[in-house]
Design goal:
Elements (H helix, E strand, L loop, with lengths): L2 H22 L2 H5 L2 E8 L4 E3 H14 L2 E14 L2 E16 L2 E19 L20 E19 L5 E4 L1 H5 L6 H9 L14 H14 L26 E2 L2 E2 L28 E4 L14
Parallel strand pairs: 1-6
Antiparallel strand pairs: 1-2, 3-4, 4-5, 5-6, 7-10, 8-9
Length: 292
Amino acid sequence: MDRHLADRIAIRDVVETWVIARDSGDWETFRGTWHDDGYMMATWWQGPAEEFTEVSRAGWERGVNIMHFLGGCRVTVAGDRAIAQTKMTIMQRGVLHGVRCDVACTGRFYDFFERRHQPAEQRGAQPADRPGGESGESRWAIVLRQPIYEKDRLDPVDPAATVTLDPDLLNAFPEGYRHLAYLQTHLGFAVKPDMPGLRGPEVQRLYARGAAWLDGEPIASPARPAGPESAEAFGAREPVQAAGIAVTVKGAAMTEPTSPPGVPTDLSITARPPTTTTSSPDADDHTRPVTP
């Protein structure tokens, strides 16, 4: 088989294994999709892959319902480095204002991959079917995963139900993942407010980092913002914060928020009439504001 094609197939195998292993709770296989210094950037948590594995396990065991579906994949290989862009949908279910809801967020996994050679003394510890390689002598794995959030929507599970959203909190997040962020905020997570979307400076910076990676430049780990610090924090139902936004959940006031670098701290929420999300046959306008 052509080496370039074999590399692309191996990388795609890692991407698919990541999703199947994470969503089914196969944590040892999930670990095998990352390099030891791998780093995950998600809306609700940012940090080293090993810690991400543990908080994901804790949430899965508590019943946190997050699923992933994959689409087309484009892989660009440059020697022992690669960038993989994979269309994906993140689906999360949770109770929002007393109504069970699903959020579907469509975008791309933007993955920084590297093929690394294992020292001879470590090869015996690598399972032969570990994704990204055949013998454990070298393998492709993820160094950094940065999702791109392009479009989302929120649906009551019961099509006859309605849920009223706070427009200030909803609009405090980027268009590409504002409904996902809204649900995660009310489930107790500190959501990062400046993730890349379909357009804008954040995604352009990401593309530039990807090009630099393929050119052989080192990749710096992103600064870790305030957020859940342990597996115990995952799935908590405590008051939450979103960079400069004071949020009250079920009557519990939030402490003074802290903003990640480069995020404005002068955002504020003022009361305005709520919007109502209704079940609608129009898929592109499902969460349009409805005057009560």
